[in-house]
Amino acid sequence: MRRRFLCLLLFLATLFSLLPASGCATPPEPPPEETSTPAPAPSETPPAPTPAPTPPESKPPAIAPTPTPWSKPSILPEKLVQYADWIERNDDFTAWLTIPGTVIDYPVVYGADYIYYCDYNFDKSPSKYGAVFIDYRNTPDNPSWMHTILFAHHMRDGSMFGSLKKLKDLDFLREHPVFTYDTLYGTRRYQIFAVLIVPMLYNYYQVDFDTPADFLGFVDHMREISLFSSDLILTGRDEIITLSTCWYDFKDARFAVQAVRLPDGVDRLPATYEVNADRKTYW
After folding, report:
1. Less Cβ around it within 10 Å: N or C end of the chain?
2. What domains, with CATH codes, occur in the chain?
3. In this structure, how many other beta carbons lie within 10 angstroms of the beta carbon of residue 12?
């Protein structure tokens, strides 16, 4: 009887030894993957830092909303021929930017985010120079944005947007206030109305406006903080462009040049440029 009892204990001990120990049989399940917030669609306004308040006296009079006056243009066949080689090299090709008096004479690409073309050149090869690229909200298939924004590095050798700094000189600005932005939808000329040095997070990059009054309020605010003043007259139906790059006067500074699109066939509008003696800084 005792032998049977000992055999039973031995059998049970062997059986329990074959069972997996608690908590060690399989690794713990990984936590559920976090779902990143998708980038805003081109029609949405991405989150942006709250701009400094615009003084009440600078707010333009209310203007009734205008039915959308910016109709979507069509790609011009002759532009496809003109830029065929560039499009073949990179189908992100969007336009060609030329600023007289500088080395800026570059193709412009569209990137789906702010990152890629900071580290890759036009041919999509890794490069510290990157490329000139358009804001991801300014989609190439809808070029009639009220505010188009282009970015490029400020290279110390003067390349890319390094030579934008020439427009910090009043005499140079007076001689070269107009530049060309040649898109697949047509050649556009722009005349400068503001030159900015602002913190990186300052809201100089708003692209959507609910009404013409909102747009003009934004323009007036940019003119208040501009290094130079001009007597160019803008309307609530105008289109503007901003060229933005890094600046080194203070940490995370940005240098930006803002210009208004000229009517087709107009080379330059009469305008005077002076140092903005009443320049405001809201940061």
Report:
1. N
2. 75-275 (2.40.260.10)
3. 10
Residue pLDDT, tens place only, 118-146: 999 999 999 999 999 999 888 776 666 79
Q: Contact at 8 Å (CB) between 160 and 130?
A: yes
- With CA atoms as reference, report the closest residue to 181 among 191, 190, 172: 190
Q: Which of 71-80, 202-211, 262-271 has the lowest average pLDDT? A: 71-80
- pLDDT, average across residues 246-254: 93
> What pLDDT digit, counting tens, does each position of 188-230 carry?
999 999 999 999 999 999 998 999 999 999 999 999 999 999 9
Please tell me the distance from the alpha carbon of residue 6 to that of residue 3, in angstroms, as a whole number. 5
3-state secondary structure the chain: CHHHHHHHHHHHHHHHHCCCCCCCCCCCCCCCCCCCCCCCCCCCCCCCCCCCCCCHHHCCCCCCCCCCCCCCCCCCHHHHHHCHHHHHHCCCEEEEEECCCCCCEEEEEECCCCCHHHHECCCCCECCCCCEEECCCCCCCCCCCCEEEEECCECCCCCECHHHHHHHCHHHHHHCCEEEEEECCEEEEEEEEEEEEEECCCCCCCCCCCCHHHHHHHHHHHHHCCCEEECCCCCCCCCEEEEEEEECCCCCEEEEEEEEECCCCCCCCCCCEEECCCCCCCC
pLDDT for position 142: 67
Structure tokens at 14: 């062997």
Q: What is the pLDDT of residue 113?
A: 77
As a dihedral over the C-alpha atoms of residue 269, residue 274, residue 278, residue 280, rounded to 10 degrees, the angle is 70
Closest Cα partner for 90 from 123, 114, 116, 139?
123
